[in-house]
Structures are given as structure tokens and as C-alpha cells.
Specification:
Elements: E1 2-8, E2 12-19, E3 24-28, H1 34-43, E4 46-51, H2 57-60, H3 63-69, E5 74-78, E6 90-92, E7 97-100, E8 103-109, E9 118-122, E10 131-136, E11 139-140, E12 143-144, H4 152-163, E13 169-173, H5 178-188, H6 193-207, E14 215-216, H7 217-223, H8 232-238, H9 243-255
Parallel strand pairs: 3-4, 4-5, 5-6, 10-13
Antiparallel strand pairs: 1-2, 2-3, 7-8, 8-9, 9-10, 11-12, 13-14
Helix pairs in contact: 4-9, 5-6
The structure holds zinc ion and fe (iii) ion.
């Protein structure tokens, strides 16, 4: 399974999964149809699935047009998103599995950004390979999504599920927000030397327009404050120790950053 990253709109990424043996493709969160159709043409591949993480327009905007081009394709999304994702055919809940390219992804129910948000996780084939996590707007590189329909306690629970995955998991998040996220991270966790070096790296990459997605979950655990609500440095900066309180204060600060 080869994964292509298509930059669209101002800062979104669509991910196209290509099964080279059968020449089939799937997309995660197609904000727009055109870039997907162009890539499919280039690969000469047939689109068989849309994996949506949540209902926001910058994640489902291309659903209808893609379905018109490929009437047989299957649209997957969370069961709580019933009625909000155009063309949805499969309603997924925690622990369900979806199949593509001979691989099986596990579904996580991760409310917080929206009340219905889900993630798709493809475990590694060989132990030394990377796993692939498609987490929409829940974890970003260096940050997390805003709490539009959920509480800090829910988001802590949701991110805890993802944080339990192996360090060698690639985090395919839906936006290029990394540099700004890391600026905020430094403002609350400035002594963190892993964070400092990541910032330097990302600043250089972005100056050359190099994408910072995917990142590795291990690096997120070390440097992303929204995965570190229980670390002493973040607790101290937020002047709290209870998980949801630390997280809520952190998210509140970021909302006003
Ligand atoms: Zn969103
Ligand atoms: Fe989004």
C-alpha cells in the first residue's frame, strides 16, 4: 500500500492509498474531488473507498463528485455522523475494522473535535515497519484539533487511545499547522530540548515548503503538549494536575494564541 499526500485548499491534506497489485485506490478525507481525480488518472487506478474521519466540509467536500465518477465506491464514516457525511454507506464504531489493499485497519472512536470523529489505524505488517494512523483533526503534528463538539475530558480519553499506539506509527493528520503549533508548544514547554530541536527542523522545512506530515507518534509523545497533559512540565505550566483540567487550560490557551 503506497500512500500519497495531496495538498489542497489553504492547508489541508488528502491522503490517497494505492493498492498497486490490484490498481485500486482509497482516499482519506477528500476535501476536493479534482486533485483526487487527477491523481487517479496519473496512476490509472480505480477509486473504491472514501474513509472519512468526520463531517467537516474540508474533509468531505469531494465526496459527492467522487461518487458520481465512481458510483460503486463505498463511503465510510463514524456511526454518530449519520446524516452529516454525504453518501455515507458504512457506519463505523470503536473496534470495527475496514479492509484495503489486503490490510485491515482498526477504527477508533475519538470524539472531541466533533462528537462523531473516528480514526483509522493500519498496524505494521512486519514489526520493523511503520503503522499508519489517519486521525483527521484530532492529533495534529505538534498540536490537536479545536473542541467544537466535545469536552476536554473526552479529548483526553480519545488522544489516550491514539497515544497507546507504537512510537513507530506515522501520524497522517489532515492539516499543515505544524509550525504554528510548535510556536505555541514552545510557549508552554520551552525547556523541552526535543521540542526545541523539532522547532528548528520544522522552521527550516517550512521555509523550503517541505511538508511536515506525516510525523512519527514517538516524536509527538515527546514534543506535542496535547499528548503530554500528564507530564510535570505541562502540569506546572498549566498550574493543575488533573488530566482534563490541564488539557482544558492548554486548549484554551491555544485557542487564544
Ligand atoms: Zn475538522
Ligand atoms: Fe479540518
Amino acid at each position: 500500500m503506497k500512500i500519497y499526500r495531496l495538498p489542497v485548499l489553504s492547508d489541508n491534506y488528502i491522503f490517497l492509498l494505492h493498492d498497486r497489485e490490484q490498481n485500486l485506490a482509497a482516499v482519506v478525507d477528500p476535501a476536493e474531488a479534482e486533485p483526487v481525480l487527477n491523481k487517479l488518472k496519473e496512476l490509472n487506478a480505480e477509486l473504491v473507498a472514501i474513509f472519512n474521519t468526520h463531517h467537516h466540509g474540508d474533509h468531505v467536500g469531494g465526496n459527492q463528485k467522487l461518487q458520481q465518477h465512481y458510483p460503486q465506491l463505498c463511503v465510510y464514516g463514524g456511526e454518530e455522523d449519520r446524516g452529516r457525511i454525504p453518501g455515507q454507506k458504512v457506519f463505523l464504531k470503536e473496534g470495527d475494522r475496514v479492509e484495503f489493499a489486503g490490510r485491515s485497519a482498526e477504527v477508533f472512536f475519538i470524539p472531541g473535535h466533533t462528537r462523531a470523529h473516528i480514526a483509522y489505524y493500519f498496524p505494521p505488517i512486519q514489526p520493523e515497519d511503520t503503522g499508519e494512523l489517519f486521525c483527521g483533526d484530532t492529533i495534529f503534528a505538534g498540536g490537536c484539533g479545536r473542541l467544537f463538539e466535545g469536552t476536554p475530558a473526552q479529548m483526553v480519553e480519545s488522544i489516550s487511545k491514539l497515544r497507546n499506539l507504537p512510537d513507530n506509527t506515522r501520524v497522517w493528520c489532515a492539516h499543515e499547522y505544524t509550525l504554528n503549533n510548535l510556536k505555541f508548544a514552545l510557549s508552554v514547554d520551552g525547556e523541552n530540548s526535543d521540542l526545541q530541536s523539532r522547532y528548528t527542523q520544522v522552521e527550516g522545512d517550512r521555509r523550503q515548503d517541505i511538508p511536515t506530515v506525516p510525523s512519527l507518534l514517538g516524536l509527538e509523545k515527546q514534543t506535542n503538549p496535547f499528548l503530554r497533559w500528564d507530564s510535570p512540565s505541562i502540569q506546572k505550566a498549566m498550574n493543575a494536575t488533573e488530566d482534563a483540567l490541564v488539557f482544558g487550560r492548554l486548549r484554551g490557551k491555544k485557542d487564544n494564541f
